[in-house]
Write a structure and sequence with these properties.
The complex is a heterodimer of chains A (113) and B (116). With 113 residues, chain A is mainly β. Helix content of chain A is 0%, strand content 54%. In chain A, strand 7 (62-67) and strand 8 (72-77) form a beta hairpin. In chain B, the strands form two sheets. In chain B, strands 2, 4, 5, 6, 9, 10 and 11 form a seven-stranded mixed β-sheet that branches. A four-stranded antiparallel β-sheet of chain B has the order 1-3-8-7, with no helix packed on it. The chains are: A mainly beta (113), B mainly beta (116).
Chain lengths: 113, 116
């Protein structure tokens, strides 16, 4: 069945270093992949998305890489800051399923000062 | 513009009761989706409403239902509450961007439901 998962449940990173969060997916029919950030007591916040016909997309301090060959998605955060401490989720969407998102289990990022 | 709003933010109910949660999407967004978030199961899709019609449904029992009004506001209802229904219920509103530029989906802060 379809699934979206994460390799690392917790990631500790030194402030100023780069962070890499990984995600594996199994549904090759996915059209979009999205990364969300969730801080304590808040709903998931959109970070960046990538269409399935792309392999890289950059935003402000973030880059998402998509490798369809191995069904792998990653989020890179440059110069990690204390405000980046949160749980990060990858999610996939198929246009045929409307706006339904299938989420991975989440990775907690802890930024050490 | 204002974000997605959900009311109430916190709720405590007793087993067997029923509950109604409300979501107001971002202005102009016609799609509203509901998710349940628990530590054990993570974020799971409940259902999606678009133009007052249920467009998609997740794998939840019939005790979970929803509806959408003409102003795109949505409500979800859980009847005969069980202890396992304790969760954060999240609402997301979506807008398909023109010209195939993708879409945007934004979440509200959620309603924390505790069933005792």
């Amino acid at each position: 069945g379809e699934s979206v998962g994460l390799h690392l449940p917790t990631l500790s990173v030194q402030e100023g270093d780069n962070s890499i969060i990984n995600c594996a997916y199994s549904n090759s029919a996915s059209d979009y992949f999205i990364w969300y950030k969730q801080e304590s007591g808040k709903g998931p916040q959109f970070i960046i998305d990538i269409r399935s016909n792309m392999d890289k997309r950059q935003g402000q301090r973030v880059t998402v890489l998509l490798n369809k060959t191995v069904k792998h998605l990653s989020l890179q955060i440059a110069a990690t800051q204390p405000g980046d401490s949160a749980v990060y989720f990858c999610a996939e969407r198929r246009k045929a399923a409307g706006n339904k998102l299938t989420f991975g289990g989440g990775t907690r990022v802890l930024v050490k000062p | 513009k204002a974000g997605v709003t959900q009311t109430p933010r916190y709720l405590i109910k007793t087993r067997g009761q029923q509950v109604t949660l409300s979501c107001s999407p971002i202005s102009g967004h016609r799609s509203v989706s509901w998710y349940q978030q628990t530590p054990g199961q993570g974020l799971q899709f409940l259902f999606e409403y678009f133009s007052e019609t249920q467009r998609n449904k997740g794998n939840f029992p019939g005790r979970f239902s929803g509806r959408q009004f003409s102003n795109s506001r949505s409500e979800m209802n859980v009847s005969t509450l069980e202890l396992g229904d304790s969760a954060l219920y999240l609402c997301a509103s979506s807008l398909e961007l023109a010209g195939g530029r993708g879409y945007e989906q934004y979440f509200g802060p959620g309603t924390r439901l505790t069933v005792t």
